[in-house]
Amino acid sequence: MERGLYIVPTPIGNLGDITQRALEILAAVTLIAAEDTRHSRKLLTHYGIETPLSAYHDHIPETVTQQFLQRMAEGDSIALISDAGTPLVSDPGFRLVRAAQDAGIPIIPLPGPCAAVTALSAAGLPTDHFFFEGFLPAKPAARRGRLQALLRQSGTLIMYEAPHRIAATLGDAVHIFGEHREAVVARELSKAFETIRRGTLGDLLSWVTGDTNQQRGEQVLLIGPAEEASATTQLDERDERLLFRLADELPPRKAAAIAADLTGLRSRDLYSLLVDREKV
Ligand code: SAM
Question: Which ligand 1 atom is the nearest neighbour of the CA of 119?
């Protein structure tokens, strides 16, 4: 096999979701670098793969990275796996991939499961543009700040969330995006209690708070884009300063109308922007 670092996605719930090529690579490499060796051993045992495992995660000493690089420089091949899904997607591996690239070691990525893309494929939200946020901050103030920043992002937003925070995050999203914004909660994908629900943020918040079962298991939250291309996606910093400065002196409708004249943007989009700002 070709010497190098193989990036190998593993199932996100259903053990059957692993490609033929992934299994062949995992059986053929000299070493598998795994986020959690005990966790990954179960998957490998299921498929009768006996390749040695070594831990690789964000807290591993730099010397381990150097040892892996040395081995690959000498002709070994290593497969990187995480606990579930695609390594490096909200998972460890970035430092190793970069260091291997810099050392001239081939990186061979395999396509495979990823909770974000799986959720997006079934969400029923626009997919022409999407933005992967990963995990939001756990602390409420920082989380709201991040959601506020995402208000300017176009396309569908995709977030990973811990089950015990899904209700709080939906609450914050209602506050910032408004209760009518369309969203999806995709829970336990490919597992027995798989649930994919589309609704407004307000509906989803009531549903999740009214049924504690919805606050269990692994969760992806997707927030659809604003109905029309809104001013938030087009407003540059100077226009935004102008709008907000006008709004300091004038009622929001008047400020939006003048800013629309000066920028060529739509008055009602600018007005929504001001209203959204007021809600925070
Ligand atoms: N690398 C993984 C990937 O490719 O999706 C993600 C790893 S990240 C540490 C784990 C998070 O992914 C979970 O907290 C959850 O938000 C999401 N996730 C993973 N598996 C999932 C599943 N079966 N259903 C829904 N979300 C899942």
Answer: 25
